[in-house]
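User: Please fill in residues for this 362-position structure.
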């Protein structure tokens, strides 16, 4: 028995041990008659005096796209068996997907197709006759967390923000690369990762973001705000006078000092709610110098009312939003993620912003 057969059998044996009275009778695996249909093994067992068999398909990668393909193979195999008048077709067959790890989306696909599942991380579902076993583990493997982090790095995030900006548009690789200022190779890697999770689909005109809700929810749960150095100060300018001091000073473009509104200051200009009283900006070093001088910032023992975040990675400027002439702020996506990473008050502002820019988000 090879390593895959041992792992599969032991994991299934452990699961069936939780079913009172269940007894494994035999296991078939790596037979040509099975593998030609994409089946890795059959586990025959008895329960309450009746015979059953598990038709097991093992996926090295448990991403939704591959799980769905495995389910189709299982359904095809079972359909062929049902055409046989005698033999194993008389034994109730329970299709099962087994993998190292199955994400919540992959598990949901299995449930929708009434397919049992089991992963070596502890997630499982097995339903037949009077038996109902369902187990979910809140954590995820380190490898899965690492894969998600790579999908949300600044370079990859620039591609994701382009997709979220126009979720109904079809994008070719060259168009995405140009819009996100990314290499073709990087766009292709992100494209492949999104396809595995079924967040995008390939159409004749290019790829389309079909699951923006899933993408943004996963991103916000894994999000870390940009690494930056904070410069805080106090300005006496308020209201229209404050705005006048900033006229022609905000700019997201690389040929000039960069400075844009961020967090609540950005949200207030994108989807007004309650003003926070503190003005926040993303800036580069030259942009910090310009704003510090324009607002005549000073240190104040009572606390700052201006915070300049000097970002090390300048990606927040790439898709800066211009809600009105010469007023630039972080994009709706960046603003939403930044706010969601904060406290309850910040999350309320994020939800208000989502009502306008992400009505599909739940």
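Assistant: Residues filled in for all 362 positions:
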């Amino acid at each position: 028995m090879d390593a895959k057969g041992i792992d599969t059998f032991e994991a299934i044996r452990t699961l069936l041990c939780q079913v009172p009275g269940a007894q494994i009778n035999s296991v078939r695996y790596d037979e040509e008659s099975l593998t030609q249909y994409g089946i890795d093994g059959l586990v025959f067992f008895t329960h309450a005096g009746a015979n059953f068999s598990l038709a097991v398909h093992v996926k090295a990668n448990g991403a939704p796209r591959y799980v769905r393909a495995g389910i189709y193979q299982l359904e095809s195999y079972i359909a062929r068996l049902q055409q046989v008048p005698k033999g194993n077709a008389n034994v109730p067959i329970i299709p099962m997907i087994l993998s190292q790890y199955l994400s919540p989306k992959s598990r949901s696909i299995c449930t929708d197709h009434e397919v049992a599942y089991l992963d070596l991380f502890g997630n499982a579902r097995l339903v037949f006759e009077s038996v109902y076993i369902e187990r979910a583990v809140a954590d995820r493997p380190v490898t899965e967390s690492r894969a998600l982090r790579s999908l949300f790095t600044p370079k990859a995030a620039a591609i994701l923000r382009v997709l979220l900006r126009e979720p109904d548009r079809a994008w070719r690789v060259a168009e995405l690369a140009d819009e996100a200022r990314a290499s073709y190779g990087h766009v292709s890697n992100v494209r492949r990762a999104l396809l595995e999770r079924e967040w995008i689909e390939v159409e004749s005109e290019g790829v389309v973001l079909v699951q923006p809700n899933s993408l943004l929810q996963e991103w916000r749960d894994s999000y870390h705000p940009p690494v930056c150095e904070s410069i805080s100060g106090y300005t006496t300018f308020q209201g229209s006078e404050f705005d006048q001091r900033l006229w022609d000073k905000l700019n997201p473009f690389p040929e000039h000092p960069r400075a844009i509104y961020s967090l609540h200051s950005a949200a207030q200009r994108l989807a007004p709610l309650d003003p926070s009283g503190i003005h926040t900006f993303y800036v580069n070093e030259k942009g910090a110098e310009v704003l510090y001088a324009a607002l005549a910032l000073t240190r104040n023992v009572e606390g700052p009312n201006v915070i300049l975040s000097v970002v090390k990675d300048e990606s927040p400027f790439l898709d800066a939003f211009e809600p009105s002439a010469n007023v630039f702020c972080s994009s709706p996506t960046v603003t939403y993620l930044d706010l969601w990473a904060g406290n309850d008050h910040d999350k309320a502002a994020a939800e208000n912003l989502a009502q306008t820019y992400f009505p599909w988000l739940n």
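For context: Residues 1-6 have pLDDT under 50 and may be disordered.
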